[in-house]
Amino acid sequence: MSNHSNAFTDWLDGQENKFGYSDYEVAKQGGFSHSVLSRARSGIPPKWEVCLKIARVFNVSPITVIRKAGLLPAEGGDDIKFEDWQYLLSQLQPDEEEELRRIAEMKIERRKKEQTVPTLKPRKAG
C-alpha cells in the first residue's frame, strides 16, 4: 500500500469515527459505490469525482480529500486546514460570518486575559 493510500485511509478512518459512519454509510451519503472505499483500503485511491462527494459528506474542502487521496501534492499541511475554513466560511451568510468572527475575537481576548492573570501562591505562616 502506498503512503498516499495510507494517508487517505487514516484520514477516512478519523472522519468516520468523528461522524460515526462506516464505509458503507459514507458511500450511501455520498451517492457512490462502497466498493470505491474498499479499493482505497487496498491501495487504489478514489477518483476526483468521488473525492468531491466524500468532501460533501464530511463538510470539508474538496482539496483536503483530493490531497489525502494523493491526487494533489500534500504540501502545506496547515494550508489544508485553512482551505477547510475557507470552504466552511463560503457556505455562511454574511451575518453568520460576522458572528463567528466575534466569537473568535472573544476567545482570543479571554485567552489573553487568562495568560496575564497572576497566580496566587499561598504564603507560609510564620
Briefly say what this structure is.
The chain has helices spanning 3-19, 23-30, 35-41, 48-58, 62-68, 77-89, 94-116.
Tell me about this structure.
This protein is mainly alpha-helical and 126 residues long. The chain folds into two domains: 3-75, lambda repressor-like DNA-binding domains (434 Repressor (Amino-terminal Domain), Orthogonal Bundle), CATH 1.10.260.40; 79-115. It contains seven helices and no strands. The protein has helices spanning 3-19, 23-30, 35-41, 48-58, 62-68, 77-89, 94-116. Helix 2 (23-30) packs across helix 4 (48-58) and helix 4 crosses helix 5. The protein is elongated, with a radius of gyration of 21 Å. It starts with a helix and ends in a 10-residue tail after the last helix.
List the helices and strands and how they pair.
Blueprint: H1 3-19, H2 23-30, H3 35-41, H4 48-58, H5 62-68, H6 77-89, H7 94-116
